[in-house]
Design brief:
mainly beta; six-stranded antiparallel beta sheet; single chain; five-stranded mixed beta sheet; Immunoglobulin-like
């Protein structure tokens, strides 16, 4: 009887030991799902400290996933009938999608917009806003909203270049500040 009990214990211990040593299959870790990007945009200067006669980029509500918009805002401009500028950005980082008219020129008359890539230069957007009738614009307000799609995480400058404000007599307005900003695209997931 002792022999049978001992044999039974040995068999049970071998079965238990075998099940403990059974190799566990490695748990499959699922790759985190990339759900999109979060965009943070910071102007180079605080809006409160921006001097008069300034055009500044500031964040606007984005139209969809991985997209962000920037308002081009004028502060204390006087007698302007045309605004033109180039906006430079890293084309590996973001791509231009669309624009929306701003209120400042729209409330003064009929406005024409020319917004799009500058020639075949990637990363350079050409913007021209002109009164077709009515005007000129004076004061504060949004000139145009530019919308982009975030392409990859990172950070990059968005810069104004070749900015001009033209008055009603077709003369360039002097002493205008142009304030771009720094954009961070953060990956979520």
């Amino acid at each position: 009887m002792k022999h049978k009990v001992l044999s039974l214990l040995i068999i049970l211990s071998l079965i238990t030991l075998g099940s403990c040593q059974k190799k566990k299959e490695p748990e499959k870790k699922e790759a985190p799902q990339k759900t999109g990007y979060v965009m943070n945009f910071k102007p180079n200067d605080s809006l409160d400290l921006v001097p008069l006669k300034t055009i500044i980029l500031q964040p606007a509500r984005g139209p969809g996933e991985n997209q962000f918009c920037l308002d081009v805002v004028a502060k204390a401009i006087d007698q302007v009938s045309q605004v033109s500028f180039d906006l430079s950005f890293d084309p590996a980082f973001a791509s231009y999608q669309s624009f929306q008219p701003g209120a400042l020129f729209e409330e003064k008359g009929k406005t024409g917009y020319k917004v799009g890539p500058k020639g075949d230069q990637k990363g350079k957007l050409e913007v021209r806003i002109t009164f077709e009738s009515g005007g000129p614009a004076t004061g504060n307000g949004k000139l145009v909203t530019l919308c982009f799609k975030g392409l990859q995480p990172g950070r990059a400058d968005i810069l104004f270049e070749n900015g001009e404000l033209i008055g009603p007599q077709k003369k360039k307005t002097a002493e205008v500040n142009w304030v771009g900003g720094l954009l961070w695209i953060l990956e979520t997931g």
